[in-house]
Amino acid sequence: MNGNLTFNPGSFYLVSVLGSTNDRTNATGGASLTGTTDALFFSTNLLHSYTIISAAGGRTGTFTALDAFGLPSFITASLAYTPTDVDLVVTSALGKINGLTPNQVAVAGALDNSFNNGGGTLPGLFSLAASQIPGALNALSGEGTSGTQETAFGAADLFLSMMMEAGVFWRNGSTVDPIGVTGGPPR
């Protein structure tokens, strides 16, 4: 817009966000802010930050409130201000969900760190109910696969141990093995 941008007390600034695109107002003059920003999110593919106002002549004031709609429970929105811009900042807090195991917290923390530093995240998590997130974090961790492998290694160790004990039994010429079976060396 040409000229100055002014939001009066009680005014609403409606911003729609769809994936990597968002509503934005560019003013050639200054921006004087107050009132409320309403942010509507229409996609599960989010960026960490969106510039919603840019004023070449500078910015004064701040919005008094932000209402965000359409975000998953573990995503929050806030406003950040520079001398000329207003940014809508989206923050992931998967790791702060109550009741997660330490492994789930570690996976969630890695996802939070990636998203909150602009690296993206997994949009598939956004459509899940809060009760489904721990299971999804387990699946992403690979813990199920490593647990199966650990069991296989344990079984192999048990088999090898039994074979080695039997070999020692026969080599020593014993007639009773460690569990009480009587026999003689093979011929």
Walk me through the structure.
The longest helix is centred in the C-terminal third of the chain and has 29 residues, at 143-171. A hairpin with a 3-residue loop joins strand 10 (75-81) and strand 11 (85-92). The protein has one domain (5-144). The protein is α/β, with parallel strands linked by helices. The protein has three helices and eleven strands. The N and C termini lie far apart (100 Å). It has a four-stranded mixed sheet, with no helix packed on it. Strands 4-7-11-10 form a four-stranded mixed sheet, covered by helices on one side.
Biggest sheet record? 4 strands, mixed
Quick one: how many beta strands?
Answer: 11
What count of structural domains? 1
- Order of strands, main sheet, comes to 3-2-6-9
Q: Structural class, from helix and strand content? A: alpha/beta
Number of helices: 3
Overall form:
rod-shaped
Please indicate the percent range of residues in DSSP E strands (runs of 2 or more): 25-35%
Mean pLDDT comes to: 85
Distance between the termini: 100 Å
Q: Helical proportion? A: 25-40%
Report the order of strands and helices.
EEEEEEEEEEEHHH
- Which residues sit in consecutive blocks of at least 5 with pLDDT less than 50? none
Fold blueprint:
Blueprint: E1 5-6, E2 12-18, E3 21-22, E4 25-27, E5 31-33, E6 36-41, E7 49-55, E8 59-61, E9 65-69, E10 75-81, E11 85-92, H1 102-116, H2 133-141, H3 143-171
Helix pairs in contact: 1-2
